[in-house]
Amino acid sequence: MKKIKFSLLVLSVVIFAACSSDDDSGSDNEPDPSASNYYPLTTGNSWTYNDRYQMEGQNPEEDIETLTVAGSSEVSGNKNYTFNTSISPYLGSFTAILSRGAVNKVNGKLFYSGNLSVDFNDLGFTEIPLESINLPIQNAIVFDANATAGDNLFSVTDEIQQNIEYKGFDIPLTFTYTIETNQDSFLESYEANGENFEDVLTSTISVTMQIDASIGFPIPLLEEQEVLFSKNYFAKDVGMIYSKNTYDFIFSEIDFPTFYSPSTELHSTFSQTIDVYEVE
Questions:
Q1: Residue 2 falls inside a structural domain
Q2: What is the pTM of this model?
Q3: Three-class SS of residue 14?
Q4: Is position 250 within any domain?
Q5: Which residues contact 269 (CB under 8 A, 6 or more apart)?
Q6: N or C: which terminus of the chain has fewer CB atoms within 10 Å of its end residue's CB?
């Protein structure tokens, strides 16, 4: 049974906000999106998800995961919240991203700072020994309740280096990437796991990447392409109710005496659907 708890203090704030809105003659009775809490962040709040991982050509894997607000700390005048998960989630899931960083809310915006991790072994790429990579993110806006659908919320371009040992040779790799977040849409309702949720906003995360190997000169192991598209649904006074992350990598063939990598395509999806939740 779905549970949602509201303290008297929160209820009083909501009633006060509603009364203030009624007294504002300039509002034309339009709802104020910032008054809607699309991610209730109180220590102990929890959401249980049905996780599903599908790698192209293989049977899907399923699990049950509970994400919990573990605690908070004051940073530069803002309260930052961290999360724990009940399992070791796939690095490619949205809850894995949350659990590897911290979030805070300011004026209807949800900010995230942490790491977006990519594990090439999890994604099925084993032709060469690529290590998992961590893409640092600082103050990315995950969603903005006051934005317009289609607005760009955050963008950063950077690169990281990695060396791999291949057949006795040390091969330097350069990962060039761009991370963007965008406000997607505002929905009157959305159904997840048989429950209808009202007042839902969606936002997206996109990662574009290029990987160059250096064997005396740079050669593209991965041509510039979108490798991750993540769409996430947040319901008023509930939090995230559905997430789908799609990973697509098309590696180029490299055929040199000192370095060979076949043309390889990897396609994987991670979906997470709300089961039960307890928030206040």
A1: no
A2: 0.84
A3: helix
A4: yes
A5: 52, 53, 54, 244, 245, 246, 247
A6: N
